[in-house]
Automatic annotation (TrEMBL):
Residues 19-247 form the AB hydrolase-1 domain. The keyword Calcium does not apply. Keywords: Hydrolase. It holds the Pfam family Abhydrolase_1. This is Alpha/beta hydrolase fold protein. Gene3D superfamilies: alpha/beta hydrolase. InterPro entries: AB_hydrolase_1, AB_hydrolase_fold, AB_hydrolase_sf. Signal peptide: none annotated. The keyword Acyltransferase does not apply. SUPFAM superfamilies: alpha/beta-Hydrolases. It comes from Isoptericola variabilis (strain 225). GO terms for molecular function: hydrolase activity.
Length: 265
């Protein structure tokens, strides 16, 4: 029998009411959300989570599946007494947010999808992930992901926000081969979850950096068109790490989503 690990969580912002839960991208941890949480308006209780195998969260015996990651997020929050949440995820975090909304739609009162997509990988992307996972495990290395900051950050950040490249690089260097391999295999196995958006009743906020080449505007528009009640925010001068590159703009979009949820209640 699989035991679901309890994940590391972080109170990123004090407040009351429905919490805003922030799920990070790959190969990172909750720290990528700290600047966004600081830029939120007062009063939105904000919780960061390290996904399985990332940051301070163990993989345990968890199968390599984002469904299991979503279940671990759900159980961790529920065990802390949370009965609902607005769940926002960047890239891999967005894939997990959709899996969570699919499994526990009554728990997820709003979804934030930042620099992410609802579609599955191409065969080529999947094969590449599995190759990276094998190398990480066989050679006990995270070398295959060390060059990622140049792809994650947009050209404006690389040129003009010089402090971000070393910060993202340091977050990546803190990850483990086991966690990198787990996440790559779990992402490779994920299905297309566009249908989750078609069936989801709550408000959705889609956010994308105008310079995001990994999950570009077309993927964001696909999600907006699929969802019943979605807004789209395009963040100028930001790439795939819009929450790191332009935290105030992403915080404003997530605060609007949180307001839509609380006004519905
Ligand atoms: C991420 O930022 O989480 C990754 O780019 C996701 C992915 O590899 O699909």
């Amino acid at each position: 029998m699989t035991t679901t690990p309890t994940l590391a969580t972080y109170a990123l912002r004090d407040g009351a009411g429905v919490p805003l839960v922030l799920l990070h991208g790959f190969p990172l941890d909750h720290r990528m959300w700290v600047a966004t949480a600081q830029a939120l308006p007062e009063g939105i209780r904000t919780i960061g989570v390290d996904l399985p195998g990332q940051g301070h969260s163990d993989v345990g015996g968890l199968p390599e599946s984002l469904d299991d990651a979503a279940e671990a997020v759900y159980r961790t929050l529920r065990d802390q007494g949370e009965g609902n949440a607005v769940v926002a995820g960047l890239s891999m975090g967005g894939y997990v947010a959709l899996a969570l909304a699919e499994r526990h739609p009554g728990f997820v009162h709003g979804i934030g999808l930042v620099d992410t997509k609802s579609t599955a990988d191409s065969e080529e992307a999947r094969a590449n992930r599995l190759r990276i996972a094998d190398e990480a495990v066989n050679d006990q290395t995270i070398a295959p992901v060390l060059s990622m900051p140049a792809k994650l950050l947009g050209p404006t950040s690389i040129l003009e926000r010089r402090n971000l490249f070393p910060a993202v690089e340091a977050w990546i260097r803190a990850q483990s081969p086991t966690g990198v391999a787990w996440a790559q295999r779990a992402m490779a196995a994920r299905p297309d979850r566009t249908r989750v958006l078609e069936e989801y009743d709550g408000p959705v906020a889609v956010v994308v950096g105008a310079e995001d080449k990994i999950t570009p505007l077309a993927e964001a528009e696909h999600m907006v068109h699929a969802a019943r009640d979605a807004t789209l925010t395009v963040v100028p001068n930001a790439g795939h790490m819009s929450a790191v590159e332009e935290p105030a703009a992403v915080a404003a979009a997530l605060a609007r989503l949180h307001r839509r949820v609380t006004h519905r209640a």
